[in-house]
Amino acid sequence: MSRENKSEKFVKSINKSVRSSTRKLKPILRSIVGKKVDVAVRDLSFSDKRISNDVKKTLSSAIANAENNFQLDIDKLIVKEAYCGKQVVMKRFRARAKGRAAPIKKPYSNLTIILTEGNKKIEEKHGTKS
To answer: Which fold has domain 10-118?
Structure first.
């Protein structure tokens, strides 16, 4: 999948209906942007956040897409973009004292990760070196 610049390839992986709020996903996604994919996978593996497993799964899918569909070199791949958006919110109720009920919101998110082969501009912008 190419965008404006034909020489540069972009590989995308989307994970829909991730059982987490965007507020909890954004710090994890911000921490992997600009890193090489092997470093990002390592960081996600050792993260103590529950949702980092789903992020790692989506990143692994993007790496597999790059290797199998576009024949890109895995060692040169870096995370160009990683973002999330809201999806549905399941609404539930919890029984409380004196016959009352309290609402519970269970949000879902869409997760998108875009990879590209490493180039100087992106690596300098995010401070990673190859």
So the answer is: Ribosomal Protein L22; Chain A (3.90.470)
Joined tokens for residue 91: 């609404």
- State pTM to two decimals: 0.81
Residue ranges of the domains in the chain? 10-118
pLDDT digits (tens, 9 = 90+) for 55-111: 999 999 999 999 998 888 889 999 999 999 999 999 999 999 999 999 999 999 999
Find out whether 55 and 80 touch, Cβ atoms under 8 Å. Answer: no
DSSP output for 11-79: EEEEEEEESS-HHHHHHHHHHHTTSBHHHHHHHHHT---TTHHHHHHHHHHHHHHHHHHH---GGGEEE
The token pair that represents 105 in the structure block: 């919101």
Measured CA to CA, the distance from residue 9 to residue 115 in angstroms comes to 8
Q: Is 120 helix (H, G, I), strand (E, B) or coil?
A: helix
